[in-house]
Design a protein that fits this description.
- With about 725 residues, this protein is mainly β.
- The protein has one domain: TonB-dependent receptor, beta-barrel domain (Maltoporin, Chain A), CATH 2.40.170.20.
- The protein is about 5% helix and about 55% strand.
- The chain contains 5 helices and 41 strands.
- It has a 22-stranded antiparallel beta barrel. It has a 6-stranded mixed beta sheet with strand order 1-2-5-10-11-9.
- Strand 25 and strand 26 form a beta hairpin.
- The N terminus is likely disordered.
Length: about 725
Amino acid sequence: MPRSTNTTRAFPFAPLFVLISGSLGYLTAASAETTPSANTAQTEDNITVVAKPADTFRSGGDELVPAYLDGQVANGGRLGILGQQDARNVPFNVIGYTSKMIADKQANSLSDIIRNDVTIQPVRGYGNFGESYRVRGFLLDGDDISYGGLYGVLPRQVTSTALAERIEVIKGSTAFLNGVPPGGSGVGGAINVEPKRADSVPDLQLGVDYTGASQVGGHVDAGRRFGEDDRWGVRVNALHREGESQIHDQKNRTSLASVGLDYKGDKLRSSLDAGYQKQTVHHGRIGVGLGTATEIPAVPDNRTNYSQPWVYTDMQTRFAALRSEYDMTSDWTLYGGFGTSENDEKGNYSTPKLINNQGDTNQTRLTTRYIADSYSGMTGVRGKFDTGAISHNVNLGYSGVYRKTRAAYTMSASKTPEGNNIYHPWPVPYPETSLSASDLGDPTIRSRTINNGISLSDTLSALDDKVHLTVGARRQEIRIRNYSYAGVEDPKTRFDAFKFTPVYGLVFKPWEPVSLYANHIEALQPGPTAPTRALNAGNVIGVVQSKQNEIGVKMDFDRVGGSLALFEIKKPVGLIDANGLYGLYGEQRSRGAELNVFGEPVYGVRLLGSALWIDPTLTKAVDKSNNGNDAVGVPRYSWSVGGEWDLPWVRNLTATGTLTRTGSQYANATNSLKLNGWTRLDMGVRYTLPVNTQTVTLRANIENVTDEKYWASVDDSGTYITQSEPRTLKLSATIDF
């Protein structure tokens, strides 16, 4: 029977909206009874708010690491099965960016906040509108970001920050900690989004915002605790934003609704998060295909839209996640979680492909439908005990994820309209279909991926917790099944593998503010998916094993903190051979140094800086002429300096700014094509004022102040280059009741 396209088949939006509407009424009434608001009290004196002291933080569970000073950064985050951890006590590099930073930066999607840390490079997907990242030179796909530690839950490719209480970044290999994501990416690091929870003080926030040429949005964020000892909590978020961006004729629309319920008992803690997100882009500018060009073209005006009016994408996701912890004794805790999502993407895609060095292009239209159903789970037990002078924190856990994908497409033949050029584009008539596969209304199955593993770890502490040694192992199993568009399994692309991979790390604290650390991690993961221009497009190309060694130092002097890491990662990489097939035809070895600094060195002046120096060398390439070349799309250096200054002559007025510099990067494996380095400046102001018993916050940011033109990134296969965003004004106003 044809697959139903009923929009209520998974997590019906209508019942969710009813729940949100009812909750809002309750929350509004509750918030009105609470005067004066906590936010008002904070704004009456222009002081830095210091969060709950770190020494009261209970590590290992779902309790968030306390925010640092004014609350934009957290010195720690979730380390998979090890739970939330203070960065100073673990041999891994982790940092968290809070909802306050998201609001102050007016970040609409994850990439808007992630690009403030240049050790992570935002990139575009393979000829679509998806957001992906490179961490330590390796791709982290937008589909491989976890939600409360669970993979396969978040919306596909683009995730709104309205969902996030924290955006946490773990730098370095994480397969032991997090398990293996369904897309098999993330060797260089991982991103985790923590859901919002109701605070102890009832809160209701209403906001409006303006972005670009005419994008206007509004949101509601409300939370309240109730019941005996405030054990029950509910947090509701709703957002809608749409309009034209600064890119000529490009229109964007985002709709989101989510609800988070939680219970905090003496022994049991549990939470349920569910939501819906829909992202739509019409006449969207994707990028430029390098095609047969022998040199990188000059950058067009930032507002030029060389896309076509019939290009669009429509991505919608329904998702839910349930997590629980139960204290069997004061020292032993059972934990578990289950998450699921249904992603449905459809659209017309067309990237102009260069046919010469003057910017002339041809066009091919690809209409596609992609459906992914994912289920993930984790469970385990953690506890602590002593053996003489040594204390142990042990964790035995299981995590797994299952993803089934369906796809169909129609495609036109490649055409070269006379005079079409990326500098002077004009509309091309909708191309007729010349090739199709499956049924857009009922796509056939294309792949099944099962990743699951069992891990055991022990963190041994001695000398009054000055020394922490973490040792562990993971039995990882991967099963991959690829299918033709006729729904027939392809035995040549069937993979089954399992392996025991070790992890060990050491933390030594010679002084209380300083932690020296080192780690070694190995991982087994699914290989990358072949890009659209490969003959085996859509297939997962085998199983890869990666290895990482890292040493570093972390510092926390109460007002200023940061980390410096030296690392080496080796991983097989995918390349397209002379026959047009995508496969594991080489290895990338990334060696580098990574720096992060944050804090308030001077009262009223806050800093956030980062830098990365990396040697991303290709080795063991089948085409030996590529050995020693730089990996595609990885700049050898990048740095960023950002800050805020509470202006002393105007109470509650803060000036902000960030300066970013990224070096050049190669656009192909032969290193014959190179994107120039670029520099970007962002600036803004923020003003907070009390109005009666409410707090009003006004924000104005200008991104890319000087309207710099540059090619920002290239995909891993060297197929598409993506242009910089134009100078963009962002305005917002929020009121907290």
